[in-house]
Amino acid sequence: MKPKRTSDSYKNKSENSLGTEEIIMLREFKNFILRGNVLDLAVGVIIGSAFTGLVTSLVNNLINALIGMFVQSTALANFYFYIDKIKFTYGAFLNDTINFVITAFVVFIIIKFVNRLIPHKEKEKQENQNKELDTLIEIRDLLKIKSK
């Protein structure tokens, strides 16, 4: 008869089976997940999916209705044509294209807005380099004058 294993024996077994490489990798993974960039990315994905739902609703409920006034149908997704026995639903493609264009435009506007708020480090770096270069040129010119 085998002895019963307790939860402690399982715990010790799993700790013993983990090597130092695995422990190091788990620590690195923990540090990676807890970094701000990964959390920011996760928040961005969640907000992005919510925004996609909003844009889809806008297209399906408002833009399709406006287009429907001209084409006598309120749902673009119902537009299709046949070639032989193959059905091509170009209306669904038009819906997706409109969704993409709206989403891309909003992302473009957000990026332009953020770029205006955040100062560019490259410009500051170039200005500092130009100041250093100007100082070095002045020193060079003074040394030339002094050596004459």
What is the gist of this entry?
With 148 residues, the chain is mainly alpha-helical. Helices cover 79% and strands 4% of the residues.
Molecular structure report:
The radius of gyration is 31 Å and the shape is flat. It is built from five helices and two strands; from the N terminus they run H-H-H-E-E-H-H. Helix 3 (36-71) packs across helix 4. Strand 1 (81-83) and strand 2 (86-88) form a beta hairpin. The protein has helices spanning 7-17, 20-34, 36-71, 90-117, 121-147; strands spanning 81-83, 86-88. It folds into two domains: 17-117, Large-conductance mechanosensitive channel, MscL, domain 1 (Non-ribosomal Peptide Synthetase Peptidyl Carrier Protein, Chain A, Orthogonal Bundle), CATH 1.10.1200.120; 119-148. By secondary structure, the chain is mainly α. The chain has a two-stranded antiparallel sheet.
Helix and strand arrangement:
Blueprint: H1 7-17, H2 20-34, H3 36-71, E1 81-83, E2 86-88, H4 90-117, H5 121-147
Antiparallel strand pairs: 1-2
Task: Sum up the structure in keywords.
mainly alpha; Non-ribosomal Peptide Synthetase Peptidyl Carrier Protein, Chain A; two-stranded antiparallel ribbon; 2 strands; 79% helix; 4% strand; flat
